[in-house]
Each structure stands twice: as structure tokens, then as C-alpha cells.
Amino acid sequence: MNRHERFHRDHYHRFRHEFYCSHKYRMRHNDWHRDFHRSHRALKFLRPVFLLLIILLIYLMFKFPINKVLTFLFGVFILSQIVQLVWITHLEKRIFKPISQLHNGVKEIAKGNFDVTINNTTFNEIGFLIDSFNEMAAKLQENEILKREYEENWKMLIANISHDLKTPITSIGGYIDAIHEGVVTSPEKMDQYLQVIRKNTIYINHLIDDLFLFSKLAMHQLDFQMESISIKPFMEDLMAEFSFEFQEKGFDFCYTDDLEENYPVLMDRQRIYQVIHNIIGNSVKYGPAASLGLKTRLYRKEALICLDIQDNGPGIPEDKISKIFDRFYRIDSERTKDLMSTGLGLSIAKELMEAHGGKIQVTSVLGEGSCFTLILPIDNEERI
């Protein structure tokens, strides 16, 4: 017998052994299950039988006079039957009925019905088991809801990506066809077409970069270079950079540092810069082109470091503030198309802040502007 045949023979015998063992276990499990239900039905049947027997014995004892010895024996027998009846009732209420409820609950879970709860009236080990079962069912129900939400979000994500990619790709294709077919002849028109193609290409690259970053955040696969950083000099350098950019464009920019002392903050420099850049970038996109103004303020609130970024833009409607951090959400979709926004900037900023143990708060007044507050915990102190 060669090695190949020996391998198949050994594999066959191992499979037979595993199948036999699993089949034997299932048979034993089914036998135990049937024995339990037989015992349960027997106890439920014996309880009224014992009760009728006791009543009959009491009736016979008083109906037909007998001597004291027989009376004593009858009394002992009746007492034993009463004790047995009480014990059977106790077993039925405290053990067999809860176990039967557990069995039915497990069957519902196996069917995929996680919205099941067992009413617990016992305070023994079986009662603790029922409590654990209810906790498990609640957790499974919660996970099922999260799973459905994830699937819905995934479908929406695919639909949004398809829509956001289709528009610029269609535009690029149309302009390329026009150039290829010789529709455009003048150099000025050709330059305009190429500028539109370049603009759409940049938008697609930004969208792909944001999608890649967001997917890594969602899967917790983004690497963070965390370090304890002195917040005052970090913000001074960062705000000086933004101030220079605003002055070059003729915009107003004001930075105020209200920290009484320097505090360490555990963070990734690049990611926090990205958060602030996304929020300030939004203010520039949606703010007034001629008179844009931005005020930033750094301060401490309890064990937290806060940075206010306030603009003089159009503001955000109150009913839309809670949605601005959703993926691909745009307050004004028609206007946002012209700004070539991916709709992921604020969503990414929120995820990055939460990865640092922080958060973003927003207040806004229509016609006056919005204020984004970035909140980070001070290192070595309690986090939010």
C-alpha cells in the first residue's frame, strides 16, 4: 500500500470515528431530552393523582371506623403523600418549568428570533442561568440591529460612491469625446475643457483618498503615532500657518490663546492637523468669498482642552446640525457640486477626534455663522 492510499485510509477511518462520536453524542442528547420531557409530563400528571389519592384516603378513614394503629399508619401515609405533593410542586415550579422555558427560548434564538425574554421568578442557579440567557438574548438583539444598520449604511455608501464617481467621470468622458471628435478648435476653448477635466480628476482623487481613510478608520486599521504634546506651542505654530494663508487671500483670521499654562495632550500631530484643516476648509468653502472671517480660541474646561473655530458663514439649519457628520451628507447638494466637496470631511474629522478620546460640538445661527468646538482630554487626566 503506497503513501497516497494510506493517507486516504487514515482519513476515512478518522472521518468515520468523528462521525460516529458526533452521531453518538446527538443520540445521547436526544435521549436525555426525551427523558427530561417524560419526567416533566409524569410529574405534572402525578400531582393531581396524588391529590385525589389523599382526598380518597381521608374520606375512607372517616367513613369506616378502624383501630388506632391503622389510623396512625393512614395518617403517616397521608402525611408522606402531602410532603411528596409539595415537593413535586416545588420541583415543577422551581426547576422543570424554568428549564422548559429556557429550552423554548433557545429554540427561538436558533430560529433567529433574538427578541425573546424569559420571565424569571426563581432565585437559584437556574434563575441565574435565566438572567444570563436574557442578557445574551439582549446582546444578540443589539448585535442584530447593529448588523442591519451596518448593511443599510453599506448599501447607502455604495450608492453614494457610485453617484459621486459617476458625475465627474461622465463629465470627463464628455469633454474628452468633444476634444477627440474635433468639436473644440480654439485654444481658449481647449484650455477651458482641459481645466474642467483636471478639476474633476482632482475631485476623484480626493474622493478616493477620503474613502480609503474612512474605510481604515471604520475597520480600526489606521495607525496613530500618539505622543504627549505640549498644546500651546503646537497650536501657535498651526494657527500661524493658517493665519498666513488667510492673509494671502485677504481674509480675516484671529487666534486667541486663553490657556494659563501649558498642558500635555496625547495625540497624533498629523491627524489633529487634518481635523482642524477639514473644519477650516469647510468654513472657507461655504463662507462669504469677499468678507470671510475666522476666529479661533484655545482654552481649558475642567480636564479638557477646547478649541473654538468660529466663522461668519451662512450658518447651519438647526434640524441639519445632527446630520452634518454623516457620510456624504451635504446641506446644499446643488451648491456643494460646484465646490467639489466629497461629503466625507466632517465625518472623517469626527472619527479622528473620537479615536483620540475626544469629540466635536457644533453651534450655529442662520445668517451669522457656525462654531465648531474641538475637545481633547488633557494627558494623564480623566478622559471624556
From TrEMBL:
This is histidine kinase. Its EC number is 2.7.13.3. The lineage of its organism: Bacteria, Bacillati, Bacillota, Clostridia, Eubacteriales. Residues 93-145 form the HAMP domain. Pfam families: HAMP, HATPase_c, HisKA. Keywords: ATP-binding, Cell membrane, Kinase, Membrane, Nucleotide-binding, Phosphoprotein, Transferase, Transmembrane, Transmembrane helix, Two-component regulatory system. The keyword Methyltransferase does not apply. One of its GO terms (cellular component) is plasma membrane.
